[in-house]
Write a structure and sequence with these properties.
The protein is an all-alpha fold. The relative contact order is 0.05.
């Protein structure tokens, strides 16, 4: 008769901390936990080794539950990696999981930053998005990014967080040079251009190499000019993005050339998603007439 595996044999790394028989039973019956334990036993062992230096058994038991048993693989490894790369102050803070969770709510760039540089377990964790963004900029920039012969490096520090984020998104997508190609003929400098793009939600969903080539750089410039001084174009840009996702570039050009951008924002995208280009333009013209009569 085959001898039943004991908890100590199945989970030797946890045996020191998990002594409650009911908890042990539940863990023994948890096939997904065992899969995770076997897959990441080396990382878990390093994690527990560091915890052992700083916390008592009861505290570590709670950390095992919260950081290993409850978390899915990807987040567990992210947390462990962040902890192992942390300084002594963060490693010795029993609330480090709470600070990881707070940081993860700040976005993927912040998580990537703490995985590389370690947790921040004080109020300055709120500064991580800015720090992470600037670190990504310094990592990805070439130093040759220009707009009208003005280096991006000369203005980057003057930009707001959302403006810098757009710049970094463009660099990471090899799209920053499109700004010069599309907008260089306009009487506008780089900080003002970036501010307008951010305010109008004109981002890399449009400003990427493939989409700009499909629409045509000239039409992208006209699109920008149409929205630049119009206060009611946010919904229009969202629908332009919807058209980009559906690869309806010819329709985008028609909307621009026939000056139907504003009225495009007055309709639900679902109502035109299955229509032909001509049917959409016809619908927009009818909508425009209705709006004009309403305003009279």
């Amino acid at each position: 008769m085959k001898k039943k595996m004991t908890f100590d044999k199945k989970y030797p790394l946890f045996a020191k901390y998990i002594t409650d028989s009911e908890v042990q039973y539940n863990m023994m019956e948890n096939a997904d936990l065992f899969r995770k334990y076997e897959a990441y036993s080396e990382s878990i062992a390093l994690f527990l080794f560091e915890l052992d230096k700083r916390f008592d058994v009861e505290t570590i038991k709670g950390i095992i539950v919260e950081a290993i048993i409850k978390l899915p693989d990807e987040i567990m490894i992210s947390l462990i990696t962040s902890y192992l790369n942390s300084d002594e102050a963060a490693k010795g803070n029993p609330e480090f999981i709470a600070f990881y969770n707070k940081t993860s709510n700040l976005g993927i760039a912040s998580v990537n930053y703490i995985e590389k540089n370690g947790l921040v377990t004080n109020r300055s964790y709120k500064d991580i998005p800015n720090i992470a963004l600037d670190a990504l900029y310094n990592d990805k920039r070439t130093g040759y990014e220009m707009f009208k012969d003005v280096p991006l490096d000369d203005v980057y520090d003057t930009l707001s967080y959302t403006e810098r984020k757009l710049v970094v998104d463009l660099i990471c997508n090899n799209s920053f040079s499109l700004l010069d190609e599309i907008f260089a003929k306009l009487n506008i400098n780089l900080p003002v251009l970036i501010k307008i793009l951010v305010n109008k939600n004109f981002d890399i969903e449009i400003l990427n190499e493939k989409t700009v080539r499909e629409i045509n750089p000239y039409f992208v410039m006209i699109l920008f000019c149409l929205i630049m001084d119009n206060e009611e174009t946010f919904a229009s840009i969202e629908n332009i993005k919807n058209l980009c996702r559906d690869k309806r570039f010819e329709l985008i050009r028609k909307v621009i050339t026939e000056n139907k951008l504003v009225v495009l924002g007055q309709i639900e995208y679902e109502s035109i998603s299955n229509l032909t280009d001509d049917e959409v333009i016809d619908l927009l013209e009818k909508k425009e007439l209705v709006l004009a009569k309403t305003e009279i």
